[in-house]
C-alpha cells in the first residue's frame, strides 16, 4: 500500500547520518523520489560537522555509529539550539532509548527495519513541523518588530522604567493595569507586553469599555446563547473564549458598571464565566491587561468601582507619564513621526527649524503623544519646504492658552508669576512671529522690514538677536 500524499506537501533538505552505506543510499533514493533533497554521510563526526552548517530541515540519525554514539550528536544539537527536526533510527529499539531521545529533543523514532512508507510519512511530518516552527518564529518576529520597544520612543528615565517593567512582566501570565492619560500609548504598551510574551503567536484582542452599552459589552465579553435576548438568533462566542490562550486588553476599564465588574472579578479569580442566557459555565485562559486614565483607588473609595476588582487588576501596575513630564523626548518623537509620515506620503522634509522645535517642546500637549503624532502628520501634509518653520507650525498648532484652566492667584507673588508666564508664553512668542513675518514680507531685507513696521533698523536687529533669529544672509543652523 502506497503512502497517502497530501496536496502539495512541503519538500525539505534531509541529512542521513548512517554508517551502513546500503541503507543510507536507499534512504536517499526514496526521499529524492518524493521530491526531497537528501545527502548522506557514513560517520558521526562528518554528520556533526554537516549539522553545524544549519542547512537541513530534517536529520535521520542512527543511534549506533562506528565512531561515536548518535545521542552525542542529539545532545549537541539541543545545546546549540539548532532548529532542525531529528529522527532517530536504530535496530536496538528499547523504551529507555526512545524516552531518552525524546527528552533530548528528537522529533520521532524509527525502528529498523522500516518500510518506505514509514520513512516518507515520518520525514513528511518532520518537514511540516519544521515549516510550522519557522512560520511561527517569523510571525512572532513581525509582531515584535511592529509592537516592540522601537515603537515606544523615548530615553527619559520615566519611559525607560516602562521598558524595564515590560521586559519583566511580559514573559509571565500576570494581570497588568496600565495607568495613563488619554494619548500616552496605553494600547501600544499592552501590545508590546503581548509581543514579548509566550502568547505572542496567539490572538491579541482589544476592547474599549467606554464605547458599548453595559448589555452589549457583557455580550461581547462573555458571549450569548441563541434566544438570550431579542435578535440573538444564534450562539455567539465571547471575547474571553476567542482570546483564550491569548491576551485580552480592556481599555477604559473604569467605565464598567458594577454588575459587569462582578462578573469580570469571577473570571479573574476562577477563570470561569457564563455566557448571557446560558445556564452553564465555561473556562478561559486569556491573559487580561487593562488600562485606565482614572484613579481606580479613588473610585473604589467612592463606591463606583469594586475594591476587590481593583486589587485583582492592579497586580502589576505600569504608569505612563504624560508628555509634559518628559519634554526631553519631544524632539525624538517629533522626528520619529516626521520620518514615518514622510515615508508614508513619499515627501522629503529634512526636519524642523530650531525655533519650530522649541515651540514643539514648549507646547503643553494635553492630548499627549497621540496629539503630537497627529500634529506632525498634518505638518507633513501641508509643508512644501525642506524644513518645517515656526510660521508653518503655528498655523497648524493650537497655541492659545485655556484661560479657565489657570487657578486665580492668591498672593501678589502668584500674580506676578502669572504675568511673567503670560509674557513668556504669549507676548515673546508673538514678538518673534512679528519679526519673522516682517522679514518674510520684505524678502529677508532687514532695513526694509524695520521700515515697514515703523522701527529703526538697530532696534529691529537687536530684537532679532534677542530671539535668536539669524540674519537672512547667514545660513540657519541645522537642527
Automatic annotation (TrEMBL):
Pfam families: AAA_lid_14, HTH_8, Response_reg, Sigma54_activat. PROSITE patterns: RESPONSE_REGULATORY (PS50110), SIGMA54_INTERACT_3 (PS00688), SIGMA54_INTERACT_4 (PS50045). InterPro entries: AAA+_ATPase, AAA_lid_NorR, CheY-like_superfamily, Homeodomain-like_sf, HTH_Fis, P-loop_NTPase, Sig_transdc_resp-reg_receiver, Sigma_54_int. Signal peptide: none annotated. The keyword Cell membrane does not apply. SUPFAM superfamilies: CheY-like, Homeodomain-like, P-loop containing nucleoside triphosphate hydrolases. The modification 4-aspartylphosphate is found at residue 62. One of its GO terms (molecular function) is sequence-specific DNA binding. One of its GO terms (biological process) is regulation of DNA-templated transcription. It comes from the Bacteria. Keywords: Activator, ATP-binding, DNA-binding, Nucleotide-binding, Phosphoprotein, Transcription, Transcription regulation. Residues 152-381 form the Sigma-54 factor interaction domain. Residues 13-127 form the Response regulatory domain. PANTHER family: ALGINATE BIOSYNTHESIS TRANSCRIPTIONAL REGULATORY PROTEIN ALGB (PTHR32071:SF113), TRANSCRIPTIONAL REGULATORY PROTEIN (PTHR32071). This is Two component, sigma54 specific, transcriptional regulator, Fis family.
Amino acid at each position: 500500500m502506497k503512502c497517502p500524499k497530501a496536496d502539495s506537501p512541503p519538500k525539505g533538505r534531509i541529512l542521513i547520518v548512517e554508517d551502513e552505506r546500503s541503507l543510507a543510499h536507499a534512504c536517499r533514493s526514496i526521499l529524492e523520489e518524493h521530491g526531497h533533497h537528501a545527502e548522506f554521510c557514513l560517520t558521526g563526526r562528518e554528520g556533526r560537522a554537516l549539522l553545524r552548517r544549519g542547512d537541513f530541515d530534517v536529520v535521520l540519525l542512527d543511534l549506533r555509529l562506528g565512531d561515536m554514539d548518535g545521542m552525542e550528536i542529539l545532545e549537541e544539537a539541543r545545546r546549540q539550539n539548532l532548529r532542525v527536526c531529528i529522527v532517530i533510527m536504530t535496530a536496538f529499539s528499547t523504551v529507555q532509548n526512545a524516552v531518552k531521545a525524546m527528552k533530548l529533543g528528537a522529533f520521532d523514532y524509527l525502528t529498523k527495519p522500516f518500510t518506505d512508507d514509514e520513512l516518507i510519512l515520518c520525514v513528511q511530518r518532520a518537514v511540516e513541523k519544521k515549516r510550522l516552527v519557522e512560520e511561527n518564529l517569523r510571525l512572532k518576529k513581525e509582531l515584535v518588530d511592529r509592537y516592540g520597544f522601537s515603537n515606544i520612543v523615548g530615553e527619559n528615565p520615566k519611559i525607560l522604567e516602562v521598558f524595564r517593567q515590560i521586559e519583566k512582566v511580559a514573559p509571565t501570565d500576570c494581570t497588568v493595569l496600565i495607568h495613563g492619560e488619554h494619548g500616552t500609548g496605553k494600547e501600544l504598551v499592552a501590545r508590546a507586553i503581548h509581543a514579548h510574551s509566550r502568547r505572542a503567536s496567539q490572538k491579541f484582542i482589544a476592547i474599549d469599555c467606554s464605547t458599548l452599552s453595559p448589555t452589549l459589552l457583557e455580550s461581547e465579553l462573555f458571549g450569548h446563547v441563541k434566544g438570550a435576548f431579542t435578535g440573538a438568533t444564534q450562539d455567539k462566542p465571547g471575547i474571553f473564549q476567542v482570546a483564550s490562550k491569548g491576551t485580552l486588553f480592556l481599555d477604559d476599564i473604569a467605565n464598567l458598571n458594577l454588575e459587569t465588574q462582578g462578573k469580570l472579578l469571577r473570571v479573574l479569580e476562577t477563570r470561569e464565566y457564563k455566557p448571557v442566557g446560558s445556564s452553564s459555565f465555561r473556562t478561559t485562559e486569556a491573559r487580561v491587561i487593562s488600562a485606565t486614565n482614572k484613579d481606580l483607588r479613588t473610585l473604589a473609595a467612592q463606591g463606583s468601582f469594586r475594591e476587590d476588582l481593583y486589587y485583582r487588576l492592579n497586580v502589576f501596575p505600569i504608569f505612563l507619564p504624560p508628555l509634559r513630564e518628559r519634554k526631553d523626548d519631544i524632539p525624538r518623537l517629533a522626528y520619529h513621526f516626521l520620518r514615518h509620515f514622510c515615508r508614508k506620503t513619499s515627501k522629503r522634509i529634512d526636519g524642523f527649524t530650531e525655533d519650530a522645535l522649541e515651540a514643539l517642546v514648549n507646547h503643553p500637549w494635553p492630548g499627549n503623544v497621540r496629539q503630537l503624532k497627529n500634529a506632525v502628520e498634518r505638518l507633513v501634509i501641508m509643508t512644501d519646504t525642506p524644513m518645517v518653520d515656526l510660521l508653518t507650525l503655528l498655523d497648524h498648532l493650537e497655541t492659545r492658552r485655556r484661560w479657565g484652566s489657570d487657578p486665580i492667584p492668591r498672593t501678589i507673588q502668584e500674580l506676578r508669576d502669572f504675568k511673567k508666564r503670560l509674557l513668556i508664553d504669549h507676548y515673546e512668542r508673538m514678538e518673534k512671529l512679528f519679526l519673522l513675518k516682517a522679514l518674510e514680507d520684505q524678502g529677508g531685507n532687514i532695513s526694509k522690514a524695520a521700515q515697514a513696521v515703523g522701527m529703526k533698523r538697530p532696534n529691529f536687529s537687536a530684537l532679532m538677536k534677542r530671539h535668536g533669529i539669524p540674519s537672512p544672509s547667514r545660513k540657519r543652523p541645522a537642527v
